[in-house]
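Forum: Protein Structure Q&A
Topic: Joint prediction for protein chains with partners

I've read a bunch of threads here and the consensus seems to be that you should model interacting components together rather than docking separate models afterwards. I'd like to see that in practice. Below is the full input, 505 residues plus whatever partners are listed. Could one of the regulars post the assembled result?
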Amino acid sequence: MLFDFASALIFMLVAAAFVGVNLVISRLLQPRNPTPGKEATYECGELPVGSGWIQFNIRFYVIALIFIIFDVEIVFLFPWAVVFKSLGLFAFVEMAVFIGILLVGLAYVWRKGDLEWDKPQTGKYSREAAPAYFEEASSSSLSYEKLESGNEVAV
Amino acid sequence: MQELIASILAGENFLSDVPPVLITVVFMSAAGLLFASLAAINALIAVYLERKVSAHMQDRLGPMEVGPHGTLQTLADAVKLLLKEDIVPQNADRFLHTLAPFLVFAAAIGALVALPYSSAFLFANFDIGVLFVISITSLTVIAIIIAGWASNNKWSLLGGMRSAAQIVSYEIPTALALLVIIMQVGSLNFQQIATAQTGWFWHWHVFQFFPFNLIAFLIFFVASLAEVNRTPFDLPEAESELVAGFMTEYSGFKWAVFMLSEYANMIVVTGVGAAVFLGAHQSPFGNFMNGGVWGVFWFVGKAYGLVLVQIWLRWTLPRLRVDQLMYTSWKVLTPFAFACIFAVGLWMIL
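Posted by a regular:
Agreed with the consensus. Here's the joint model:
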């Protein structure tokens, strides 16, 4: 058992080393010619608006919560499934009760509409208020002048 | 593999003065290097396959210039990527930006180690094999979030978050579908799961307990597509919305590592599918061409067969919307997987 885990660890370390060695080889071979324009954050050719670390949809958080609940459930299910054959009916009923309670939870989330992925209808980030929000956020650290002078240096 | 090292240690040779632990570590490192190179070669072959299959499905020729029928095209691409400038944006978190490719590749190799390539040719034979693979592949999510966050780019961040949400959502049906089989075998060990499917192909798990195992296999396959961000679940890389998702700010060899890991992960999920549902390294025809090196042939063949289905689906189906994605996972696959577990449990008791 220890041998198996040790070999898996060694394989993962060797894989990381493989990436590292190749990155070093790439670093030795590649051209290095950085310009401000090249090193700017990519935003489809426009100057980046504000930071890249923006607020994103709260739905991701809800999904993470549902996931944690079900993942813990699955951790319980794995040992149960391994010994299920030898335990028989008792284990089946016990697990049916356990899963049943969690399925009530899933039904509740479903009914509440938290499994939907829709836009918020009201508030600061609703569709109507969006233009005002984007005006507020448009304070850029880069300017066209900086980029142009950078390109002149490169040429 | 353990026996092979033991036999090397037992023999009287020039190695007898070296501590056994050192020999083992050196041996496993060499095997690991071989494995990493094989993962790279696998990516070359799979990318070539993908291009050719897609081309022929669309009545095109695909790559034809480099080598006979374009076979060396992907190798040329790999060399090109090695020579490309590695651009890290000014505002990015440099350390995390570099860390993410290491983590994603290590996770892919870590999962590949545990697969049952044959009955003898094994690097790691875990008693908890299935659980190990599921947990190691979860590292990929962390690497993707790191990549998305460290780039300090809106596309990267949104792509990373989408990818994470998608992978964790589909981890539930994947694990539940595997549990259906684990209940029947009573073990998480890949070798024991393989042994339980000995014989002709109708002994494979996918054809047992009809139709529940078949449904479980379909659930597993659909969910595994989402796990590796393949079409129709490639929203994290939806180029019309998110440029390239979490890989937007990656270039040169770092980008190549992400592609490499993506194709390695395709082999991981199809390998798990082949091992658990399609008889692992067993021949489909009883004792015909069974055992030994043939195990590797059958296992890799089954895994690549499933990869071909993945490629086929990519060029057939359009991409889902993000709300359809959540719908499929939580309202279709998860309830059906639970129903399968319940039905198989009831069947086994009665």
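Chain A touches chain B through 73 residues (CB under 8 Å).
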